Automatic annotation (TrEMBL):
Classification via PANTHER family: INTEGRIN ALPHA, INTEGRIN ALPHA-IIB
Protein's recorded name: Integrin alpha-IIb isoform X1
Keywords, sorted A to Z: Cell adhesion, Glycoprotein, Integrin, Membrane, Receptor, Repeat, Signal
Record InterPro entries: FG-GAP, Int_alpha_beta-p, Integrin_alpha, Integrin_alpha_Ig-like_1, Integrin_alpha_N, Integrin_dom_sf
A single GO molecular function term of this UniProt record: integrin binding
GO BP terms: angiogenesis; cell adhesion mediated by integrin; cell-cell adhesion; cell-matrix adhesion; integrin-mediated signaling pathway
Subcellular location per the Swiss-Prot or TrEMBL entry: Membrane
Length: 322
C-alpha cells in the first residue's frame, strides 16, 4: 500500500506499508520515499505501473508536479523488490514542456500496455498545460557475455601460428553473447569491442590480433531470439621478446557489448562486459607458460538499465471554447 506522508509541502514524502499476514499492515510504515525538491509536491499522484522490467516485482511512479529546477514537474520511477521499493528512484522523468508550472505529474496512470509490446506504459497528466503524455516502456534484453581464451595455458615457446613468415605463439579469443527476455526483438544486433592488453599504452601492448596486427577490433553480432546466443572467435599472438619490455605483468583482454541499433526500441540490461587476464607474460626469458584466467565478469555498466522511453504523444488538448 502506498500513502502520501504527513503534509508538509517542503518535506513531502510517500510511505510504504507492506502487507503482513491476514491482510493487515503494521502501525508504522515499512519505508519512506522523500521528495528532493523544495515545495515540489512529491507524492501528489501515485500509480502502480505493473512490472516494468519483468523481474516479478511491481514498480511504482510518484508524481511531483512542482518539482525540478524551475518547478516544471517531475515523475519518479521506483522499482519493486523483495523489501518494497528501491530507496532511490530508478529513473526521473523531467517535464517535456519548456514552461514552468505545468503541473506535469499531477496525474498518473499505469498498468496499461498501450502499444502492445508486452510492457506496461505510463500516462502522465499536466493539467496546467492541457496536456497528457504517453511514455512507452522499452523491451528489456537481458544479456550475458563470456570470454574464453584457448588454450588457457599458453607456452611462448610453442609457436603454432605465423605472422607473415615469422612463427608466433598464438591463442584463440572466443567471445559469446547470450540474450533473453520478454517479447524481445526477433534479432538483436550488437556491437562487440575487443581490446588487447588494455592496461598498457598502445605502443607497449604485448599481444596483437593475428589477422590485422591491431590492438583492438569491433565486430557486429546478431543474436536470433530463438537461439539466444552467438559466438565469434579471434586469434591473437604474442609479440616477440625484442619488442616487449614488460615481461611480468598480466595481460588483460576485455570485451564490451552494446546495442547497435537504437531504433530496436529495446534496452540491454545485465552483464555487458567480460575480461580475462594472464597470470603473467614471462615472454622470452622464462620457459614457463602463461595461464589465463578467463571469463572474469565485470559488473554491468550502471547505464545499462531498463528505462521508460519517453515518446511524447499528445493525446489530449483543451477543447476550443466558442
Ligand atoms: Ca519490476
Ligand atoms: Ca507497452
Amino acid at each position: 500500500m502506498l500513502c502520501q506522508g504527513p503534509v508538509k509541502l517542503s518535506e513531502a514524502l510517500v510511505v510504504v506499508y507492506l502487507q503482513r499476514k491476514y491482510t493487515s499492515f503494521a502501525s508504522r510504515p515499512d519505508q519512506s520515499l522523500i521528495g528532493s525538491s523544495l515545495y515540489g509536491r512529491f507524492g501528489s499522484a501515485l500509480a502502480v505501473l505493473g512490472d516494468l522490467d519483468m523481474d516479478g516485482y511491481q514498480d511504482v511512479a510518484v508524481g511531483a508536479p512542482w518539482s525540478g529546477d524551475s518547478g516544471q514537474g517531475q515523475v519518479f520511477i521506483y522499482l519493486g523488490n523483495s523489501n518494497g521499493l528501491s530507496a532511490t528512484p530508478f529513473q526521473v522523468i523531467d517535464s517535456p514542456l519548456p514552461s514552468s508550472r505545468t503541473a506535469f505529474g499531477f496525474t498518473l496512470r499505469g498498468r496499461a500496455d498501450i502499444d502492445g509490446n508486452g510492457y506496461p506504459d505510463l500516462l502522465v497528466g499536466a493539467w496546467a498545460a492541457d496536456r497528457a503524455f504517453v511514455y512507452r516502456s522499452q523491451a528489456v534484453i537481458r544479456s550475458r557475455v563470456s570470454l574464453t581464451l584457448l588454450p588457457d595455458f599458453l607456452n611462448p615457446d610453442v609457436k603454432l601460428c605465423h605472422q607473415g613468415n615469422t612463427p608466433v605463439s598464438c591463442f584463440v579469443i572466443q567471445m559469446c553473447v547470450y540474450v533473453s527476455g520478454h517479447r524481445i526483438p526477433q534479432e538483436t544486433a550488437l556491437g562487440v569491442e575487443l581490446q588487447l592488453d588494455q592496461m598498457k599504452q598502445p605502443m607497449a601492448r604485448r599481444t596483437l590480433l593475428l589477422s590485422t596486427n591491431q590492438l583492438q577490433d569491433t565486430m557486429k553480432l546478431v543474436v536470433q531470439r530463438e537461439v539466444g546466443m552467438t559466438c565469434v572467435n579471434q586469434t591473437a599472438y604474442l609479440r616477440s621478446e625484442e619488442e616487449v619490455q614488460d615481461k611480468l605483468s598480466p595481460i588483460f583482454i576485455t570485451v564490451n557489448v552494446s546495442l547497435l541499433n537504437a531504433t530496436q526500441h529495446a534496452l540491454l540490461h545485465g552483464q555487458t562486459h567480460a575480461a580475462a587476464q594472464s597470470a603473467g607474460t614471462r615472454i622470452g626469458h622464462c620457459r614457463g607458460s602463461n595461464r589465463f584466467q578467463t571469463s572474469r565478469s565485470l559488473p554491468a555498466n550502471h547505464a545499462d538499465r531498463v528505462s521508460v522511453m519517453p515518446v511524447l504523444i499528445v493525446i489530449s488538448r483543451r477543447t476550443p471554447q466558442h
